[in-house]
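Hi D.,

Good news: the full-assembly prediction came through. Inputs first.
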Amino acid sequence: MTERPETLRSDRLRLDDFLPYRLSYTSNLLSTAIADTYQAMFGLKIPEWRLMALVAEAPMTQLQVGARSGMDKVTVSRAAAALVGRGLLARARNDEDRRSHHLKLTPDGEALYARIVPKALDLEKRVLAGFDAAEQAQLDDLLARLAESAARVMLRVESET
Amino acid sequence: MTERPETLRSDRLRLDDFLPYRLSYTSNLLSTAIADTYQAMFGLKIPEWRLMALVAEAPMTQLQVGARSGMDKVTVSRAAAALVGRGLLARARNDEDRRSHHLKLTPDGEALYARIVPKALDLEKRVLAGFDAAEQAQLDDLLARLAESAARVMLRVESET
DNA sequence: ACATAATAGTTGCAAATGAAACTATATACG
DNA sequence: CGTATATAGTTTCATTTGCAACTATTATGT
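Then the structure:
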């Protein structure tokens, strides 16, 4: 990626310097690498892996999974169905609302999850290898604020259209 | 997003703290916002907009577009076809290699591009509103290094599978 | 020169995605 | 209560995506 000039001209735009593009580019690179790895090693798709990770933290309904992860409810539904089908996920009756279920990992699911986590952490570690602790903290902070900011902008954009 | 404890436990993983996930989450948020805006305002899909932005910088072949942007050649092909169909893009004969063409914007394409750029820069500005110059520079730097690192890790991952 | 291999771009197909309609249950309000 | 409205999750369908096979052209080796 090249240097952005100090003074921005407002009639041109270098795609390489355009934040949304760079974010997407970087994210896609990582996502693809991860998707391939998980598919090859564990037969899991990204939504399935994400669902497992969330439910492993704390059992929750599909709606909660969607809200936390930004996944579409259709995506969550299919991921859950696939995991239940493989015996990795259980739906526990929710007596407060019988439309939904509490999702949690089965023992098999926990076992698989336990095998995945070190791989995931290792991958993250490799990606972050060139970053010292301060930089990692900065990245954490910047990304968090960016997500917040993006969510805010997104709302405004929607209302303008 | 929550605080990551100083000492990492290696058997658990909070999805909210997992870098690839956060990157993807943030990127998707922005991408969706942008995709909706461009589609509504200019009838452009993201690949079409990216192609325009690249070609506006300097005419190039489809292959070069793909190499620079990470877009699949199929995606580039379809984006180019759509833009040519709308009279926004021209394919100029490439005498050195008649399999490929030099792509450049038509006057109409330039005109549309000129209308898009301020919108894009404005959007970026809004997203980065809460970040001072130093933080923006940091973000630039961190993302660039992250992309590089991700590309490296991706290569290793592929060879391991 | 001629066959073989490589490359730019397109097309066909199969998988992933998400909006909208649908089912079943829950809540609100007369 | 009973009817209307909202919500959790599923299914259907249309769109988007990218790999693989294909066409047209170019480069290479003999």
